[in-house]
Amino acid sequence: MVNRRLTDLQENQWGEIAQFSDDAMASRMMSMGILPGSCICMMRKAPMKGGVCLKIDNNKVALRCCEADSILIKS
Amino acid sequence: MFKIGLLGNPNSGKSSLFNQLTGLRQKVGNFPGVTVDKKVGIMQLPDGEAITIIDFPGTYSLHPNSQDERVVLNIVANPKDENYPDVIIYVADTMNLEKHLLLFTQLQDLNFPIILALNMSDLAEKENLKIDTAVLQKSFQCPVVLISSRTGNGIETLKRHIEDSKNQPKKFQTQKSFYTLNKQEKEIAKGVQSQPQHVEQDDYQSLLWVHHYDNLPFLDDSEKIRLHDIGEDGNYHYLRGQINETMQRFDKFIPIVNRTIVNRKVENQPETITDKIDHFVIHPIFGPIIFFTLMLLIFQAIFTWSSIPMDWIDAGFGSLVQGVKSVMPNTWFRGLLTDGLIAGLGGVLIFIPQIAILFFLIAILEEVGYMARAVFMFDRIMQKFGLNGRSIVALISGGACAIPAVMSTRTISNWKERIITIMVTPFISCSARIPVYIVLIGFVVPDVSVLGIFNAQSLVFMGLYLLGIFAALGSAFIFNKILKTNEQSFLMIHLPNYRSPQFKNIGLIVWEKVRTFTVEAGKIILIISVVLWFMASFGPSEAMQNAKDNALTIAKEKQLTEMESDDLLAAKSIEASYAGHLGKFIEPAIRPLGFDWKIGIALITSFAAREVFVGTMATIYSIGSVQDELSIRDKMAKETRANGKPVYDFATALSLLLFYVFAMQCMSTLAVVKRETNSWKWPAIQFFFMSALAYLSSLLAYQLLS
Predict the structure, then answer these.
(1) What CA–CA distance (Å, rounded) separates B102 from B249?
(2) How far is residue B557's CA from residue B547's CA, in Å, rounded to a whole number?
(3) CB of A35 within 8 Å of any CB in chain B?
């Protein structure tokens, strides 16, 4: 199955992290507790490729669009 | 002295705990060589002994991604470091325990005696979480304490554990490594330890050295090459290895957390209060509206609340000067005391109300969790200029005063983004420019209305502010192109749940900032004030005597009152002083801008602080009352050049205004920039860059318009 990018999610949509497309981003995100298998909700997408606000295990995290792009979710 | 290290993730409530343990007995410095806050405090144990506590910057992992995290790695991976803690208190957020244990297990593998402090136990209690600390205690073989840094619960128990750990540190170390190294990693670790003169080192530390040798300044070059070769020979894949390690650790401790907190709600709750608030606060339209309203209120508060204490300080120093003058004979020493030292000290203290109010309000926004949202909203725009979302805080604060604004950039972890923010913040028109604008604006446009609704002078006033903002963003853009960094820029921030502010923390923040400003910037301001006083009061003795005689003769001829003749004497003396000579010396350089030597003196003395311009003008044009900006303007309007045309015509006034918008004329800011960047290089670049811009724009304006 092809994985979708996290940024393809609409606001208030849920997804499950499959993997990361970039190792450097992955290590950074994992140290913050964003792990493959975590359930993730797109809370807010700022307009014009601004940041995204995510909810993950009752934690809220803000990422830049390019950072969020490296998260792949199961489709 | 026995050293306790306080470590944990950002948002673990570590700093609140630090405040609980040390109170006012703390001070902030920098870790050697970097501008990362090092907070050190003294704590009294129950047995009466005093020990040192170091509050380390919030860290997610020993594989560093920021300056802060590198500092932590550097210390905990080097037992010879002066800040290497004897015992670690690891602070974790009970509500998010499964996210907070990565660093904890890494530190345990470095063989530190550790006490695990589960913070925010009050919130856990509210949520009816059942926390079985015995499970954690058994799994990690270290004492576990439930604490609340907000209510102070559990702090006494924690102190008793600290006491125990001091007496028997061995009891607080684990025997086995949490992370299981694979075969390749074991080989690499063995390679590091094979060195004959090698000090005893555990496997995980060896691995960290190989992994991050480039970020460990305590290693010498030959050692770095050796570690590099070991990694190469062992075919070590750095990034993969890091990811695998992180995964393994999470895989191991998440089941432990699940056994510790049994009735935890794992699934995401539908909508919390924080979500409801965020619905508006980070809304694409309401968000910025809320932000700018808040900023306007802060701005307003800084101006209105601070004016009263500022008047007190002003009046207090005024009467102090009068008092000194009435009891001491008129000597140079009295002049040094009143016009040099006391005036300089007043110049420092006058900023304190603004700084205190600004930090008070910003600390509240930070404490309740709002700041992270503002950073998120503005990150995108700021990035275009090489800045960070957090720069918005500094740029807005700069509207009041650049000094606290520069100090507030500490929250920007990326070195380049922080430097750029510091460099451009002084372009934002601060409150000290207002009196200068007011005096000069009348020469540029008359007090008439435009289109029936706008006042022409207010429009120019606003234009000057916009010009400052434009200069700040424009030069940020240029710095962004010039400065290079290997450090990747990240946003990735937690948006903490909203909570009510803790005034003890806020009070300590305000106290700390005010103290730092007074001591650090104060020293430099005082020295420069004394130098300026000297230059304005002394000159070649013959010239000074001539000026005095001259003034007395004119006064007698024109039958001036005592006050008028004093003013005249002051005016003639400043012309003959070293400052006057300097003004005349620089006159050729500033003539193309339309300035004469009198303006030259004002430019020099303005370096102490911009608002000094008005006072200097008053002295030069011999006006008794400095307070009355209008009478200064009248006097300036009458001033003519040799050809009979007024000095302050449209071109000169505009040129001077532009100069004050752009020029770096604030030694307090330079002093703070020096302190914050830990070098003279940045304030020097800032000074020359801003002055050059000021000079060129004034030159252009005057040459085109005159």
Answers:
(1) 7
(2) 15
(3) yes
In chain A, the domains with their CATH numbers are 4-73 (2.30.30.90)
Sort B262 into a burial class: Cβ within 10 Å, 0-12 / 13-18 / 19+: exposed
CA B170 to chain centre: 40
Min Cα distance B605 → chain A (Å) is: 45
pLDDT at position B695: 96
Chain-centre distance of CA B479, in angstroms? 19
Structure tokens at B58: 């919030």
B252 and B135 Cβ atoms separated by less than 8 Å: no
Question: What is residue A63's predicted lDDT score, i.e. its pLDDT?
Answer: 92
Q: Three-state DSSP class for B706?
A: coil
Q: What is the amino acid identity at position B641? A: R
Helix and strand element counts for chain A (H, E): 2, 6
> For residues B569 and B259, what is the distance between their CA atoms, to the nearest angstrom?
85
Nearest to A31 among B102, B283, B375 (CB): B102
Q: Which helix (H) or strand (E) holds B26?
A: strand B26-30
Q: Which uninterrupted H or E stretch holds B43?
A: strand B37-44
How confident is the model at residue B676, as a pLDDT?
Answer: 84
State mean pLDDT over B436-446: 84
Alpha-carbon gap, residue B180 to B528, rounded angstroms: 60
Q: Are strands A59-63 and B493-494 parallel, antiparallel or unpaired?
A: antiparallel
Q: Please, is B224 exposed, middle or buried when counting C-beta atoms within 10 Å of its C-beta (0-12, 13-18, 19+)? A: middle
Domains along the sequence of chain B with CATH: 3-172 (3.40.50.300)
- pLDDT tens-digit readout, B546-589: 888 888 888 888 887 777 777 778 778 888 888 888 889 999 99
Q: Which residues of A touch B63 (CB under 8 A)?
A: 27, 31
Q: What is the pTM of this model?
A: 0.79
Per the CB < 8 A criterion, the answer to whether B119 and B149 are in contact is yes
Distance between B137 CA and the closest CA of chain A, angstroms: 22
CA distances from B543 to B531, B535, B556, B600 (A): 20, 14, 20, 19
User: What are phi and psi for residue A56, nearest 5 degrees?
Assistant: -140, 115
B559: which strand partners? Answer: none
> % helix / strand / coil in chain A, to the nearest 5?
20, 40, 40
User: Which of A37, A29, A28, A30 is closest to A74 using CA atoms?
Assistant: A37
pLDDT tens-digit readout, B328-373: 888 888 888 887 788 778 777 877 887 788 778 888 988 898 988 9
| Nearest beta carbon to residue B63 from set A31, A53, A62 | A31
Exposure letters B128-156 (e unless 16+ CB within 10 A, then b): ebebeeebbeebbbbbbbbbbbbeebbbe
Q: State the ipTM, two decimals.
A: 0.93
pLDDT tier for residue B625 given thresholds of 50, 70 and 90: very low
Edge-to-edge strand order for the sheet containing A4-5? Answer: A4-5, A71-73, A14-20, A39-45, A52-56, A59-63, B493-494
Whether the Cβ atoms of residue B305 and residue A73 lie closer than 8 Å to each other: no
A13 interfacial to chain B (CB closer than 8 Å): no
What lies within 8 Å, CB to CB, of B573 at 6+ separation is B537, B539, B544, B547, B548, B551
Nearest to B102 by CA among A12, A65, A27: A27
B61 — contact with chain A (CB < 8 Å)? yes
Q: Write the pLDDT tens digit of every residue in B154-168.
A: 999 999 999 999 888
Taking alpha carbons only, the member of B78, B695, B677 closest to residue B412 is B677
**A37/B contact by beta carbon, under 8 A:** no
